[in-house]
Amino acid sequence: MADAERKPHRVKVDRSEGFGERLLGVLLDRAHEMPPQLIAPLIAEEVASIGGRDVSILLQDYEQMLLVPLPGRRLVVGDPEPIEDSPAGDAFLRARTVEVPQDGSVRMYLPLLDGSDQVGAMVVTLDDVDDDDRRLLRRLAGLVADMIVTKDAYTDLFFQARRRADMTVAAEIQWSLLPPLSMIVPQVEVAGILEPAYYVAGDSFDYALNDDILHVAMIDAMGHGLDAATMATVAIGAYRHTRRVNTELSQMYAFMDDAISAQFGPDHFVTAQMMCLNITTGQLQWVNAGHPAPLLIRDRAVVDRLESPTTLPVGFGGEEPQVSERMLQRGDRLLCFTDGLIEEHQSGEEQFGEEQLIECTNRTLHEHASVRAVTRSLSHALKRERGGATSDDATIFLIEWRGGKADHLTTLE
C-alpha cells in the first residue's frame, strides 16, 4: 500500500474526567443559567469538596478603600477588610495567593481576576494545603470572578454589596459608562480611578484594545450633577461610535464636537483628550482639547510633560486639531488626569498645583510597583494632600507600555 493511501496514525488521548475537571466543570456547566443568588452556595459546595470551609467573597468598594463581604447562603459574612495592610488586600493588589497559618489550619486569600480586572478576593480555610489545592483554588477563583462579572450585568446584588454610601444619580450614570477599571496584557497595563466615587458627575474615561492599538479617552464635562453626567454620556457615546468605525483622531474630535454642540448648544463644552498607542512599537499619538498635559514617567519618576498644541474643548467648534506623536521607551508610563486634581484649593488659598502633583506622584512610585496599586494609592494620597477636599471631579488614568508580543499565550504547554 502506498504511503498516501495509508490512514494516519491515531493517537489515543485520555479524555476521562479527572477530579479537577469535574470540580471546575460543574461550575462551567451550570454557570450559563445560574441565578446570581445561587452562586454563593455552589461555590461553598465546590470548596467543601476539597476540604475547604468558611468561604468569603470580598468585593472592592467604589472608593477602593475596602474589600466588602458579599452576602449569600453558606458564605461567611464578616467585617470589611482594608485594602491596605491586610492579607485580603495583599492578594487583591498584588494578584497573588496569600496563605495565613492559623491554629491547625491555613486561611487562603485568592485574587478574583476577570480579564485582569481585579474584582476582589475569595477567602477559604483548609486544614492543610498542597500544590494541587493551590492550583484548583486558583482556577476556581478565576471562574468565580468570571461569573460575578457576567452576572453583574443583570443583577444589583454586587453593586449593593460594593456601595458603602449613598450614590447620586449622576454618579450611577458615570459608573455605568466605565470600562473595567484596569486591564493587563503582556504589552500594556492600564488603570483608572474616579473621585469622589459617590458624587462624580462630569469626569469619565474609556479605552479599548483593538488588535495592536490601545485607544484611550478622558473627558471632563462642564458643571455638576445630572447636566454634567448627561454631557459626559453623549461625549463617551460619540467617542465610542467614531472609534468603532476606525476614525482618525482629528475626526474623532470633530464628531464629538458636533454631538455636544447639537445636543446642548453653544454654551456647553467638554474638555477631552484622545490617544492611540501602538502596543507593539510604542508609537503614541494624541489630541488635546483642553486637558492638562499628561506626565511621562520613566524609571519610577516623572521626567517630562507631554506638551502639545491644544484645540478648543468639544462643543466650542475648534479647528481641526493637530495630532501629536511620540515614541515611548519600554517601561514608560503616562499619567493622565483631569484639572480637578490640580485646581482644588481652599477658599482664598492657592491651588494644589501640578508641582505638588509631581512630588506626590514620585513618592507614590517609590512605594508601589503595579499600575493598579500606584493609581489607587496616588489618588488617595492626593486626596489627603488636598485636605480631603473634592469640590470637583478628579480622575487619574495610568498607562504602562511594555512592548513585546503575547503569542506565547496561545501555545499549550
From TrEMBL:
Pfam family, one: SpoIIE
Name the record gives this protein: PPM-type phosphatase domain-containing protein
Signal peptide per UniProt: none
Family matches, as SUPFAM superfamilies: PP2C-like (SSF81606)
Boundaries of every PPM-type phosphatase domain copy: 185-401
Keywords: Hydrolase
